[in-house]
Amino acid sequence: MGDYRVLRVGGLVAMIGAVLAVVLNLLHPRTSNPTLEEELDLASSRGIWMLDHFGLLLIGGFFLFSGWAIARSFRTEPSRSWAGVALAFAIAGAAALMLVVAIDGYATNAVADEWAATGGSEASLAAARAVSAIGVALFTAMIALTFGLTPILFGVTILAGAEYSRGLGWLAIFSGVVGLVTATIQYFGGLTNLTLNVLFPISSIGLTIWLFVMGWRLYQRTGTEELMAPVEVAVRS
């Protein structure tokens, strides 16, 4: 099973990451479904843009560590096998999240500064359109992976075992289904008020609550006999 103390740290990382994700998203400069020019103005005129996105970049690492710890906490079959599948998607989701944040933070800021310095020239606007198109495509894929398939698979993992409350499994599945619906609508229809300001926040809030509670339960379990034994035993729900 490995050192249970590492899993205990994973529980703490999950809780800290969930709280930081809320704070950083609240600090993220935004308007309701902005035009390209409005987004460029936000990126070039708000000094917090780069710092906020760097913090969100670190959240990707928090997500990966906590996902690994949660997956490793499943001791019985078939939940243990399902956890391996969920972890594989969590790795892909964390990579996608970090890539999206890097592009939205650094690349968007760079083209926004160029756009502002040239007085909104057509060349800088064309470059910004290209960066924006790539960003939206990766953002959509990230939603499908990180906020869709990954929580669904962790939800199935929980329901397949007895390690955690079934309510946490259904919460993960609900958040994941909303995330997949969001990604599907956005893939075929582009960014809309429905996906940006209704569906994605619902999925994001659900996943954040789930991650915090899972981190808390993992932290509790690693402080008891449930995960301290080196041999495989059935655990209490």
Q: How does this model look, in words?
A:
The chain has 237 residues and is an all-alpha fold. The protein contains seven helices and no strands. The chain has helices at residues 4-27, 36-45, 48-72, 79-117, 122-160, 166-189, 193-221. It is elongated. Residues 228-237 have low confidence and may be disordered.
Q: What does this entry show, briefly?
A:
The protein has helices spanning 4-27, 36-45, 48-72, 79-117, 122-160, 166-189, 193-221.
End-to-end gap:
18 Å
Give the radius of gyration: 19 Å
**Helix content class:** over 70%
- The 3D shape can be described as elongated
Give the biggest beta sheet: none
Low-confidence stretches: 228-237
Q: What's the total count of β strands?
A: 0
Our estimate of the beta-strand percent is under 5%
- What kind of assembly state do the chains in view correspond to? single chain
Specify the number of helices.
7
Mean pLDDT: 86
Structural class: mainly alpha
The helix/strand order is: HHHHHHH
Give keywords.
disordered C terminus; 0% strand; single chain; 237 residues; 7 helices; mainly alpha
Topology:
Elements lengths: L3 H24 L8 H10 L2 H25 L6 H39 L4 H39 L5 H24 L3 H29 L16
